[in-house]
Design a protein that fits this description.
Blueprint: E1 10-13, E2 22-25, H1 27-35, H2 45-59, E3 62-65, E4 72-75, H3 88-95
Antiparallel strand pairs: 1-2, 3-4
This protein binds zinc ion (2 copies).
């Protein structure tokens, strides 16, 4: 028998329109958010996980060589990525 009370659990709907799933925030979690004075999450755990992963990969930056002028620069792609990556200067030159 479970002693876990679901009385104060909150049922929310994920605000991600492509997902829009119902999810439950259990009483302990609700208490945690209230204690930290944080708003209740508006995304289901799966979407939150995806967002965290997306954020992490955006923050990852690599030093690499511009494929045109061979200057060193900072890019979101590592040197071994199979893309041509240009520095800002070469990028804008290429658009002309
Ligand atoms: Zn979701
Ligand atoms: Zn360049």
């Amino acid at each position: 028998m479970s002693t876990l009370s679901t009385e104060n659990a909150v049922k929310l709907v994920c605000t991600n329109k492509e997902c829009a799933k119902d999810f439950i925030v259990i009483a302990q979690e609700v208490a945690f958010y209230q204690q930290k004075k944080l708003p209740l999450p508006d995304h289901c755990p799966a979407c939150r996980h995806r967002q965290r992963m997306a954020l992490r990969s955006e923050r990852q930056l690599y030093k690499r060589i511009c494929d045109k002028c061979k200057k060193q620069m900072i890019s979101v792609y590592p040197q071994e990525a199979p893309y041509l990556v240009y520095c800002t200067n070469c990028f804008w030159e290429n658009i002309e």
